[in-house]
Amino acid sequence: MKLYQAAAALFASAVAVSAFTAPSKVPISRNMGTRTFVPKFGTSLAMSDSAVVDAETVEEGAETFEFQAEVGRVMDIIINSLYSNRDVFLRELVSNAADACDKKRFLSITDGDTAALANPEIKIKSDKDAMTVTIEDTGVGMTKSELQNNLGRIAQSGTKKFMEALGEGKADVNLIGQFGVGFYSAYLVADKVEVVTKSMQADSPQYKWTSDASSSYTISEDNSDPIEGSGTRLILHLKDDALEYMESAKLEELLQHYSEFVEFPISVWKEKTEYKQVPDEEANKDLPEGEEPKMKTVPETTEDYELMNTNKPIWLRTPNEVTEEEYKDFYQSAFRATYDEPLAHTHFSLEGQIECKSILYIPGMLPFELSKDMFDEDAKNIRLYVKRVFINDKFEDIVPRWLKFVRGVVDSQDLPLNVSREILQKSKVLSIINKRLVRKSLDMIKDIESDEDESKYIMFWNNFGKYLKVGVIEDRRNKDDIVPLLRFFTSSSGEEYASLDQYIENMKENQKQIFYVTADGKEKAQMSPAAEKVRSRGYEVLYLTEPIDEIMIENVPDYKEFKLVDVSKEGLSFDDEDKEERKKKEEELNVDHKAVKDFLEGALAGKVQKVQITDLLSDSPAALVQSAYGMSPTMQRYMKAQNVAAGGSDDGMMGSFNQAVLEVNPAHPIVLDLERMVRSQGEESDEAKDFAVLLYDVAALTSGYEIEDSGDFAQRILSMMTIKSKSDIRDVEVEAQNVEQEHVEDNHENV
Q: In terms of pTM, does the model score above 0.85?
């Protein structure tokens, strides 16, 4: 059944309020429909809309009743659609029991019955011999009529209108799941359910409701195991494929997962083994009088109830009632982070249209699961509760993925409890909660940034800086709040980070541009000839050292009134110089050095788009820069890796689109030497061509590119070394001959 169809069917067949939170006394009605309750898969439902069946006596004191057909339809929806994981049956039934205890407390206060307030609790016990699990609460209990109305028929009205509204696309999905279908989740694991209950109403007898998943149920008075006061005892006769739920360890695991913060104490019947010291009778047979008897250790097995939900939901308290130590202890226990101390936390609530309480944490270290994949789908960062009952920790929409590192709990009073994640993700409530969580998370980050201890934000940035960069790319609504939180190394910051605001504070007078360069790491950025063009003029340069930086910076074309400029693009200009004058000067340079320019363009055909003569370089002979729309070498490598990972090839990827422009410094000795070679040896000289290609290779390396053919590069280096060695040997031989000649001449003079 499709999820939409399941929702529509549930609207049309919504059942009464929770099984254990009975409404006020309702008269018994015999006018129940005779539609057959068939919760088996794939079976049809026999229906008769207006038939009436009277209760039949099947044994002394017991009456049998037909289920309303809508109950069967709800049952089919539950098993097929609402619950993809049958472990949640315990969550639903414990939640019902807690609601029953809560209602009893409320009614007791209202009626002034203080005796009924004592010790509300929930107990769970398994019986392996009987193959049962029993869930018992000391809540409000139910009368006979309440059993009929809550467990055997539909008590809601207007469901037809909900069905029609859903079909027209007007219904609010929030309405689904608010009709108490949780009780029927028992049939996910049980083929027979018994409900023994005693109402808190005066002189109310104890009843037993029984159904074996057929079309009917029975109700009888019960005196087998009297309930003290009031309450409900739910006995599940487990299916053959659900016997794992008889293990106390399994029940404990589920309770810790789903119900650890339920208000009322939950206990599980467990077998415990303790070791004690007793006298060793065998060893003490011949013990001399006066000596201390010898002891031995023996195991002692006992059975008793053990409290499960020892953790307290501190988010329900006001922030001024919770100490810093309590916040830390809760974080470490709830998120199994014993050795991590959170950098920050925030505790807040939403009131008004939506009621929600929450505590959020920024971890002190990167969670282990995120160290392997920064967006790991199995990472459990935000735990969603509804009225203290755990629902899920894998909601994609509760926070944007750039806040994947933020941990916390959200407890909502407005979300439905017993529906699947897919339906909840369509809820309007989640959208409202999402906005508030993002705002509170940003406030926490800003608080860390403004802390007097600067090392805290450095720690935060080292662990989670990448996530903020993703936020700039993906979260347009909050981008302007994220950008001031970014940090960069710069040409002037040394080993310290700098923000864009700090960069602006250090600007030269009348500077209107923020300069940056992309590279694989700070060291390579410092080597970049493109950055050298700016540093030589006294400007500070931001170093963008990760592949994501280039995508991120494209979403920040300017900051405040300053434009961000990539110095590795061609056509770089400065605000403090006349653009026409700059253009005229470069045209003159290209004319004056036309010979070497033309030679380089010929020798490097297919490698570069063009060669440009410039006086912006100071220490480097040449630099490779991209055209206005070209990709940096870092991004090119990233794209190639992505293409290969997807099964493609990196051969010739992007074609000539990303061929760089070679900028040449005509005043550098290497370029002057190349000009001399071209004039003296001609453009066909192999030595000059090798020299030109080597100049390109060096410019590529220092500009962050990879050498396409490392073998040829090595060969060119060896060739130059060989030429240099031969030249040095000739010089040495000539020097030796000169020395020998001088020595002979000296000898002649002495003779």
A: no
